[in-house]
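The pair is quoted verbatim below.
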Amino acid sequence: MRVVTILALAAGVGWSFGAHAQDAGEAAIKKSGCLKCHSVSADKDGPAFKKTAAKYKGKADGAATVQGELKSGMMKVDGKDVKHAAFKGSDAELKSVVAYILSR
């Protein structure tokens, strides 16, 4: 019984940390104005976060690639270099944003 209680507590702590990271990413996305051109599930001027997540799913360097593109303001779209607004938040916020996008 004691092991079950410990496992349940550990799972709860892990879940709450994941929820906090998601909240931080969503807040940074809203604060940075990303939702002017993007949404979670529908393409706007930019691709939906779900589409971006699908593109990088299973790629070991996916998070690093998205992070680098958002930081530099340049990315590859259909093999062409495309200018994108550079993310101006902190590195911690950028990591939260990328985690949020790739979790969709």
User: Anything to note?
Assistant: Strands lie at 74-77, 80-83. The chain has one domain: 2-102. The radius of gyration is 16 Å. The domain at 2-102 is CATH 1.10.760.10 (Cytochrome Bc1 Complex; Chain D, domain 2).
